[in-house]
Write a structure and sequence with these properties.
Structural class: alpha+beta
Number of strands: 11
Order of helices and strands: EEEHEEEHEEHEEEH
Radius of gyration: 17 Å
Largest sheet: 6 strands, antiparallel
Shape: globular
Distance between the termini: 46 Å
Helix content: 10-25%
Number of helices: 4
Strand content: 25-35%
Amino acid sequence: MSNPVTATNGAQFSGIATVADVGLQGMITLRGDLSSKPLAAAVKAATGTEVPAQGTILVVEGGAAAWMSPDELLLLVPYEQAVAKTAELTEALKGEHALAANVSDARSFFQITGDGAREVLAKISPVDLSPEAFVAGDFRRSRTAQVAAAFWLQDDGSFRVVCFRSVGAYMFGLLSTAAHPQSAVGVY
């Protein structure tokens, strides 16, 4: 059996911002009643975070929980722990109307860093990314050009972007084009 790799295998591009494949990331889709105490306890055990509020992500050392919809969270865990954490969630939520699915290998994960990071994402997504409207911890599911994606702003000013693995190469090309040195608009 070969070692897993990402769709873009460590690709990186530098321009007005740096776009990089983050590498393998454990991701679990968790569906259920987000107000359920057993679900909240399972999220805490799996990620170390509480259930996030609508439109936000909570990030701690080694884990994160992002609000995807009124009955869905995206949990981030170390890649090598995703299978075990999914099984633990399933066991913890027996008797609850809930579903935990390991989607780690079905996703691509990128970061955008540098002074132009906000501009790069703003060019391709219909979200107000101005510093007043989009702050660290904000999380959005949206379109990025022609594909669905989710993204958030980290405390350090960098963005993380998640999309389906099947469009990972397209997303990397899209972000790289938006980060091209000759594409600067200077909006932020």
